[in-house]
């Protein structure tokens, strides 16, 4: 049996990603999100619990690979992957879960814009308000480490609520689901 591939005009290139492959795609996406989130938490621990100086606090992967922390291209790439993942996987959610997933998506649109703005500054050499380094809009009031920890928290929190609701849907939400993500309904009395 061949997998049907539709055109972009129909709304998706691979209908299975929100159907029979939704569980796998969602798990892979959430693993990527959690790994990135863990990097930000590790960096915060290095600064606030271990007392490391800001240039030395680079998360887990940033210690052996310092360019990861300073690369605006890498940060923008991750923001873009997050945005694409939230858009592509959204159709697999129903009801309350879809509402929470959409909240995460809306917040990520802004987060993506901030990273695009930082990348533009890096490439052009024109920095916001003449700052010596690329600076995001909210970074004018919140330091960068704390701001990105905040951004990742406010994108992740509604995403987590969405996933929990998606795994445990109400009967009417389950009836509309095209995937197998939901936990099986218990038939024991």
UniProtKB/TrEMBL annotation:
It comes from Sphaerisporangium aureirubrum. It comes from the Bacteria. Keywords: Membrane, Transmembrane, Transmembrane helix. The chain crosses the membrane at residues 73-89, 149-167. This is Uncharacterized protein.
